[in-house]
Amino acid sequence: MKLTDEEKAMLDGAEGPAVAAAMDLLVRYGEALDCERLCDTRNVAGTMTQPSPAKAKLVAEHGWDKAYAVINLDSDEEFEVPQMKVPTCQLQHGFSDDSVGVAPYPKQYVELQADAESFYGRKGVNILATCTPYQVGNLPVRGEHVAWMESSAVVYANSVLGARTNCEGGASTGAASLTGKIPCWGNHHEENRRGTHLIDVRVPVKSFLDWGMLGYFAGDLVQEERPVVVGDFAQPELVDLKHFGAAAASSGGVEMYHIPGVTPEAPTVEAAFGSAKLPEAVHYGQREREQIYENLNSQGSNTDVDFVLLGCPHASVDQIWRAARALEGRKLKAQLWIMVPRALKVVADRSGYTEIIEKAGGKVLSDSCPAMSRSAPPGTKVFATDSAKQAHYLPAILGIEAWFGTLEDCVNAAVTGRWTGELR
Amino acid sequence: MSFLLHGRTVVPGVAEGEALVSHETISGWGGIDPAKGVIIERRHELYGVCFTGKILVFPGAKGSSGWSGFFQSTRLMGTAPLAMLFTDITTKAALGAVVTRVPSMTGFDRDPVEAIRTGDWVRIDADAGVVEVKAGL
User: Fold this and answer.
1) Which residues belong to any copy of the Phosphomevalonate dehydratase large subunit-like domain (chain A) (predicted)?
2) Who contacts A94 (Cβ-Cβ below 8 Å, separation ≥6)?
3) Out of A54, A71, A172, closest to residue B77 by CB
4) pLDDT of residue B137
């Protein structure tokens, strides 16, 4: 790795031992990538406050400084964590106090996390506590080099915002926040951002459900590469692109996609592929749509639903409002949670949406989700969701059955306690 | 029968042990249980299999950016693989190998997932960029 004089000085300890450890990690990481240099960043989205057994043990025995050193810098050194050098936000973490008595999430983790928030807040970490920092004001500009983790946020930042980030981890974001540096590799380079696969949509894609299924198809097809989507679809909304990317990052490892005419780096199909020859298109038609629906519903056999989960990635205000309308005047048999960023819960509270949802028996919960916290309502055996990502991950994480469908299918399941969803 | 693979260093070091080969990419978050060192993704070919103390050979990392943190946890909880050999380099796999702190290599002259079989005896010299494989019968 070629380091600048400033970077060499940081590595040699000119800015203290924590920054030196951060540079050491970035150099080890950069060399692992066979990367030539670092690039500057002023926007880091990572996680310091998320409780885990390993972190809880470290904090109990040695405090938060040590936990940051070990987990966020991969260092065995002893030092005090300095202020964050560049703007840094906390992504989603474990459940907070709004889940006490609702989720069987360990109370000591809720307390540990509150303690973490006050520690890291003082260090300059913005506690956004959401997997969708772009929904609550963290919006990098096109071409900006950022260091984000959280697969659904990474794919959104690259594809929809045109910012440049790789899928970073806890240690690389921890080091970036203290140095303002990240390896200039992969998605940071123009030539690695061009499309690799062309998907021709031959069946109308017009709903949130459809965008999730198309994303799940795209991820499964391209794995880590970059799909370009053309064909029969309506103008997507923010939530559609959020769902598409999250699904593509779950079934594959998609960090970048293009929708010509919609996403900023692809004004045309040709631009999406740069100078490369257009590949032969893979069709997404009726048969593929049915296959994806079956795949997403292959982890359900019992139609008795105990739990319904909406909002993954975290719901927008519009999604909360849609859920409120679907729930108005109804009474729920199953548990229903809507996962939201806390900043948007304030808007939902003021707008009266939360009241409608709670009157029906549902909960609006912030900061986390059942997958992050590994916690669903007690006794849950079968759940239903409108999120392709949660349908993918939750059966493995919690050992429960999953149904995937529309918001309306999910709300109906919550009201009747039975899954009756089907592909329409 | 024994043969050599040549690749490049991801994490330096030397390790020797039994290979565990995955033909499918591996998820960290949602894909492994770091407390037990076991693959938990239900549809995975290695569902329920423990990688602790094995030379983990796999095509690459997939899924959440929690990948590195989950593999780092295997080191902190004593369930880490002995070494990692993977086909495709990504930030998840690279950072994951760095924080797991086990000898790791990629960029091989032959795909290790095709060349090595579960149960083969493998000696990795990541400093020299060489992997020696003693195939089982």
Assistant:
1) 1-412
2) A50, A51, A105, A109, A110, A113, A367, A368, A372, A373
3) A54
4) 55
Cβ-nearest to B88 among A53, A168, A224: A224
Instruction: Find chain B residues with C-beta within 8 A of A397's C-beta.
Output: 30, 40
Give residue A385's Cα distance to chain centre: 16
Residue B55's DSSP bridge partners are B19, B83
From B22, B27, B64, B73, the catalytic residue: B64
E strand residue ranges, A215-366: 227-233, 282-284, 307-310, 335-340, 363-366
Integer angstrom CA distances of residue A230 from A99, A208, A248, B43: 42, 17, 16, 30
Residue B72 touches chain A, beta carbons under 8 Å: yes
Active site residue B64: yes
What H or E segment, with its residue span, contains residue B73? helix B67-76
Which of A24, A26, A29 is the best residue to mutate to test the B interface, defined by the most B CB atoms within 10 Å of its own CB? Answer: A29
Closest-CA distance, A302 to chain B, in angstroms, reads: 17
Q: Where in chain A are all domains bearing CATH 3.30.499.10?
A: 299-416
**pLDDT of A165 strictly over 90:** yes
CB A41 within 8 A of CB A180: yes
Copy the structure tokens of residue A32: 């692992």
Q: Which fold has domain A5-190?
A: Aconitase; domain 3 (3.30.499)
> Closest to A74 (Cβ–Cβ): which among B40, B66, B99?
B99
Give pLDDT tens digits for A249-280: 988 889 999 999 999 999 999 999 998 899 99
Pick from A170, A183, A396: CB nearest B68: A170
Backbone angles phi, psi at A143, to 5 degrees: 85, -10
- A400 and B CB contact within 8 Å: no
Which chain B residue shows the shortest CA-CA distance from A183? B91
| Contact between residue A352 and residue A318 where contact means Cβ atoms under 8 Å apart | no
Contact A366, A129 (CB under 8 A): yes
Nearest one of B116, B110, B40 to B83, comparing CA atoms:
B116
For the question of an ipTM over 0.90, the answer is yes
For position A396, what pLDDT does the model report? 83
The superfamily in CATH containing domain A299-416 is Aconitase, domain 3 (3.30.499.10)
A346 in Cβ contact with A320 (< 8 Å): no
CB contacts < 8 A (A, B): 109
Mean pLDDT of B15-40: 94
| DSSP class per residue in B78-91 | T---SEEEESS--H
Query: What is the DSSP code (8-state) at residue A130?
Result: S
What's the pLDDT band for A31 if we cut at 50, 70, 90?
very high
A residues 205-244 lying closer than 8 A (beta carbon) to B? 223-224
Q: Which residue of B has its CA nearest to A24?
A: B98
Q: What is the pLDDT of residues B107-135, one digit of tens each?
A: 999 999 999 999 999 999 999 999 999 98
Across the interface, do A171 and B72 touch by the CB < 8 Å criterion?
yes
User: How many CB atoms sit inside 10 A of residue B6's CB?
Assistant: 13
